[in-house]
Amino acid sequence: MTQPARFAATYAALTAAHEVADHWVQNDDQATTKGIPGRNGVLACVEHVITYTATQAAALYAVNRATGLRLSWRRAAAGLAVSALTHYAADRQGGHWRDERPRGVVRLAAATGHAGWLQRDPNAGYLMDQSWHKGWIAVAALIAVSGGAR
Asked: Is 150 within a domain?
């Protein structure tokens, strides 16, 4: 399998798993609590990221086995770690996309000229969140396939 095909298959598996994990596996408590300050918010976000990463790992394992990707487990784990850590960073924002005093990823979005959009469009925060995740999933896929097949 060519390196571009390996990347495409890896990105597709990680992205499909992202959609399932973020919208089906994540429970209501995690979704509503993960962005609140304090211990409960941290724990809810950690629980979500654990199930999110497990879902991505299962998808990557299945695609690796079914297609002969021959991914290195170390590189796959490194890619999953990047996806998990960046997912946590964004999800600790929770429903705080419209806060008057933004933090983290919201501050970055505002600094890059998106503050008005975030304030005006009720879907902007969700779209920024999802594009953040998918951009980092591409990085994770590149890490997972780097170094060639094992």
From this structure: no
